[in-house]
Design brief:
The protein is mostly helical and 279 residues long.
Length: 279
């Protein structure tokens, strides 16, 4: 169908629904007056019932899964309720008068109570079910069809060779390159091969001992040699300059050994000072 035919069909449907609502509106208004509603409430009562039917129908066309089934149940329940009230209106000629006061909707007490309960509970149900349907529609996120999703995934994963674009490869000088056309490979078969190739060329971690040439050739100094070298280097230093960091830099040793040397040198300086004072 073209656009004009679809537009005409929608307009015809709207016209039919509007006329059907007008017929149902008259019956539901009289029923609302019969159960004690005032003029304004009775005029709005048909919108509460038939209006929620339209809302549930729109929600059923929009939602999916459990939410759509819930909207269909609401639509079916309110359609049945509207049908029952229209039927009762047709059975009671006294409801058709111009001024309607309190009247019974059925001869039997239990039947009358059930009909009054149905008519009075529909507005409350419209508030609850209508709010729930609107919330479900506002929070609904349309899902992508599985066929379209797989098609998009294949298009994204398609390689440059599959799309007909040339692939430029670097070769070493003096090596002849085969200029024959590369056969087209299906994407599903190409993925495992690419994964195996990538795994094969992955660089391995270096193992084994460090070469002798890379090791340090500086000889290891004993504590006595380290202390003698420290005495020679710090002979002219004042005692305030004998710090662990200064000794470490001068001797190029570890902080722990530098602290030991510092304490030894300070102890020797204090002992020499004390001997000089005593002499």
């Amino acid at each position: 169908m073209n656009r004009k035919a679809k537009t005409a069909l929608v307009l015809a449907l709207v016209a039919v629904v509007a006329m059907a609502f007008r017929v149902s509106w008259n019956a539901l208004r009289d029923v609302a007056k019969a159960i004690g509603a005032d003029g304004t409430a009775a005029t709005l009562y048909p919108f509460v019932v038939d209006g929620l039917m339209a809302l549930a129908l729109v929600a059923a066309l929009t939602l999916t899964g459990d939410a759509r089934r819930f909207a269909l149940r609401v639509l079916a329940a309110y359609t049945l309720a509207s049908l029952v009230l229209n039927y009762v209106h047709g059975l009671l000629p006294e409801l058709h008068g111009a001024s309607i006061g309190w009247s019974r909707l059925a001869d039997g007490d239990y039947t009358n109570w059930a009909l009054v309960l149905l008519a009075t509970s529909l507005p409350v149900g419209s508030i609850y079910f209508g709010s729930d349907l609107v919330a479900k529609v506002l929070h609904h996120r349309p899902t992508i069809e599985s066929g379209e999703q797989e098609s998009d995934q294949i298009d994204v994963n398609r390689s440059m060779s599959d799309q007909g674009e040339p692939v430029v490869e670097e070769t070493a000088p003096g090596v002849e390159v085969d200029s024959s056309p590369v056969p087209v490979v299906e994407p599903i078969e190409a993925r495992p091969q690419l994964a195996v190739a990538a795994e094969a060329v992955r660089p391995r971690r270096a193992t084994g001992r460090v070469p002798q040439a890379a090791r340090s050739t500086r000889p290891t100094r004993t504590d006595i040699e380290l202390l003698a070298e420290a005495r020679s280097l710090t002979e002219s230093w004042p005692i305030e300059k004998l710090t662990g960091e200064g000794i470490r830099k001068a001797l190029r040793t570890s902080p722990a050994k530098a602290r030991v040397v510092r304490e030894t040198l300070k102890a020797e300086r204090e002992r020499d000072n004390a001997a000089a004072v005593a002499g």
